[in-house]
Specification:
heterodimer; A: 302 residues; globular; B: mainly alpha; ABC transporter involved in vitamin B12 uptake, BtuC
Chain lengths: 302, 456
């Protein structure tokens, strides 16, 4: 498993306990670069907890979460990084991060992992454009000389802001919200808010995009548009996507790889086709005992 | 509510019942308060007298008021809500929005000469000092607190602490080392923002009510330290003889090298007042300018984003710790400026000037004005502080209510009443809409119900 060619994210023996409750139990999986990896499972399986651990919102009780930038050969140094006790290890050909050691804002800022939320978290009182500019905070902060040059009105900031607006414009065009750029984000319909949240995450320039149920509450047409958007993000920007999803049409159509969780334990891991036919997965989703699986399979036409 | 017509007919029986019930309530309430009165008679005994006519007059007024409310006001209100909202003419609004700020700035600049021309040298001091300077100090404090409360959404009930730090920094440094005002002004700002950061650290994890309580305590701690550190601050007695401002080295006094003599004018205390007016005007405009700039910078957007959703902020790689601390530091810095100005203007400071009531006044200016709105805060400051001063001028009321009537005593009552009314009609403050900091095609104001108030 170690040093697997195109792995970008490696979750190893991840365990998260809340008091006596084990939300995630000894979970290990990998996400490959340029792939869409889906994390599925029934409600309460611990999927969002895994996300919160990866993106630094939770400190895992145990386990290691490695992420690489640059060349895959840098994975060979993972043990060195772990032993050093540091957050990152930079080599000429690539950089390794240990995400469980980083606070959430550095996971986005340095390790370049962006995320969206299950219950949309936009800035409703700010315009659509402002939402996308807030996402480019760190670059703009640098350009404004940590506010000092910006206050004095140096042109470097104006240039950087124009570039940021241009980038926001491109994304708005992409998600079909250009005409609503100056409306407040809270005024948008639900599906548009979902797309805007994805665009906002993309504006942080991520290498790994984590989407928590992006298709929840979307109608079939919006769901299809979302699929197209995610595939485009993967193909054009060479970005790896990790996604939690309940909508099987989204999962099966676009994921390259599926990991199934149930009660915090991984019950299946593989190509979407293989996972779909896994009796354990069917049992977990439909809630039947193992011996009844054949009957259920027949009923649902598998 | 099925069909409108029968409901709109005034229900006389219900109105009378309500009025009677209200009158009964008023009778029960005012009987002990007004109906009975204890007076000392000539032998110094306490005797109980009754005031039935006054009591029944008040009960009648309350009952009639309730009747009028049910018969006239309620139908009118219902009609009003049923009527479609007439959109304000867009052109008029745009013109107003465009010209209001330049006009207001122009007015405050020509205000002193205008007042002098209208009232003469003697009468102008009151208008420039009590109205001009006093209001501008609060406008500046309101704008400073607006950064913390309005933009970053961090409820700060101890803002006056930074005002006190600024005032005492100036007073002590100027008295001890004889440093000049223009040197100590930035220094007082730096010291205040240092205390702002010091307050910021422990409260970073607190939100909402808890944040409010800790900031309230911080304000009191600073005041109590000032009271008790007698060696340094002279405790309750305060600091006297704080150096007064000079016109770039020329003092405002009646000496031969004083301002009036140097410029060949007749001596008048008005020159110092006018100078102070322009100093605080410049400071207030600086606050406004910096705030407007900051809102368009990433740090300002991060403040507003923090108010809207802190978790989302963190997911976008924003260091919320630094963002909160800069908000506290910036807000405190402007309070420090205002504080050092206050010290040089008064020439005397004591802990009395930095009580919780001051924090509450500044906070209510921000809340009444509309959190985040510069113009709203300025209007609220004029109404609140100018209103207080106007109370002193209402001497004609003495002819109505008798010579013992002191209108300033009713200040708090009237403010409480005004605040209740504003919170009913404009629950999010006078100017509740938010102007976006940047736009692609057109600037559209954002309605108040979409804007979060922040949760600390």
């Amino acid at each position: 498993m170690a040093g697997n060619g195109d792995t970008i994210l490696r979750v190893e023996h991840l365990t998260m306990r809340f008091g006596g409750l084990v939300a995630v139990d000894d979970l290990s999986f990998e996400a490959r670069q340029g792939n869409i990896t889906a994390l599925i499972g029934p409600n309460g399986a611990g999927k969002t907890t895994v996300f919160n651990c990866i993106t630094g919102f939770y400190k895992p009780s145990e386990g290691r979460i490695g992420l690489r930038h640059g060349d895959a050969s840098v994975w060979g140094e993972l043990e060195t990084l772990t032993d050093s006790g540091k957050r990152r290890l930079a080599r000429a050909h690539g950089t390794l991060y240990q995400l469980e050691r980083m606070p959430e804002y550095l996971v986005t800022q340095q390790a370049r992992v962006a995320r969206t939320f299950q219950n949309i978290r936009l800035f409703p009182g700010m315009t659509v454009l402002e939402n996308l500019l807030v996402a480019q905070h760190n670059r703009l902060m640098l350009a404004s000389g940590y506010t000092l040059f910006g206050i004095l009105g140096f042109p470097s900031y104006a240039t950087a802001e124009r570039a940021a607006i241009e980038k926001a414009r491109l994304w708005l065009e992409r998600i079909g919200l250009l005409s609503r750029a100056d409306d407040s984000a809270g005024d948008l319909p639900y599906g548009a808010q979902r797309r805007l949240e994805i665009a906002r995450a993309m504006c942080t320039d991520p290498l790994l995009l984590c989407l928590d149920e992006p298709a929840a509450g979307l109608n079939p047409r919006e769901s299809a548009e979302l699929n197209a958007l995610l595939l485009a993000i993967r193909d054009e920007h060479a970005i790896s996507i990790l996604l939690i999803e309940h909508d099987m049409s989204v999962v099966m159509e676009i994921s390259d790889h599926v990991v199934v969780l149930d009660y915090g334990v991984k019950i299946a891991d593989g190509e979407s086709e293989a996972v779909r036919n896994d009796p354990k997965v069917i049992a977990a989703y439909l809630g039947v005992a193992d011996e009844d699986v054949a009957k259920v399979e027949a009923e649902v036409g598998l | 509510m099925a069909d409108g017509a029968p409901n709109q007919r005034v229900d006389m029986a219900r109105a009378l019942r309500d009025a009677g019930f209200t009158a009964l309530l008023a009778f029960g309430l005012f009987l002990p308060l007004i109906g009975f009165q204890t007076v000392t008679n000539i032998r110094n005994d306490l005797i109980l007298t009754t005031r039935w006519p006054l009591l029944f007059a008040i009960v009648a007024v309350v009952g009639a008021g309730r009747l009028a409310f049910s018969l006239v006001f309620e139908p009118w209100l219902k009609q009003r809500t049923l009527r479609p909202v007439a959109a304000a003419p867009a052109g008029w609004r745009a013109v107003f929005a465009k010209w209001f700020t330049p006009f207001a700035i122009g007015f405050v600049i020509v205000y002193p000469p205008l007042v002098v021309a209208l009232n003469g040298f003697g009468g102008a001091v009151k208008w420039i000092d009590n109205f001009g300077i006093q209001i501008l100090i609060y406008v500046m404090l309101g704008w400073g607190l607006n950064i913390v409360v309005g933009l970053a959404g961090l409820l700060d009930l101890g803002y006056v602490a930074f005002y006190a730090v600024g005032a005492y920094s100036y007073a002590l440094l100027a008295k001890t080392f004889g440093l000049a005002f223009w040197l100590l002004l930035p220094l007082a700002g730096i010291l205040s923002s240092f205390w702002g950061i010091l307050l910021g650290f422990p409260v970073l994890r607190l939100r909402g009510d808890y944040l409010a309580i800790v900031t309230l305590a911080f304000g009191e701690i600073i005041r109590i330290v000032i009271i008790n550190w007698v060696d340094l601050t002279n405790g309750y007695a305060g600091i006297t003889g704080i150096p007064r401002p000079t016109f770039f080295g020329i003092p405002f006094n009646a000496d031969d090298d004083g301002f009036a003599a140097v410029f060949g004018l007749e001596f008048s205390p008005l020159y110092r007042v006018i100078f102070l007016y322009y100093v605080i005007l410049a400071l207030a405009l600086l606050t406004a300018f910096v705030t407007v700039r900051l809102r368009r910078l990433p740090v300002g957007r991060a403040w507003e984003a923090l108010r809207e959703d802190e978790i989302a902020c963190r997911s976008l790689g924003i260091n919320t710790t630094n963002t909160k601390l800069t908000a506290f530091a910036m807000g405190a810095m402007f309070a420090g400026f205002a504080g050092s100005f206050f010290a040089t203007r008064q020439g005397f400071i004591s802990p009395e000037s930095f009580t919780f009531l001051e924090s509450a006044t500044i906070l209510s200016i921000v809340v009444l004005g509309g959190m985040g709105s510069q113009i709203g805060v300025a209007i609220a400051a004029i109404a609140m502080i100018g209103g207080t001063e106007i109370m002193r001028e209402l001497d004609f009321l003495k002819q109505i209510f008798g010579p013992t009537f002191d209108p300033t005593q009713y200040r708090m009552l009237l403010f409480g009443f005004a605040m209740v009314l504003i919170m009913i009609w404009r629950p999010r403050g006078l100017i509740a809409t938010r102007e976006p900091s940047v736009f692609l095609k057109e600037r559209k104001s954002i309605s108040a119900d979409l804007i979060n108030e922040g949760h600390g």
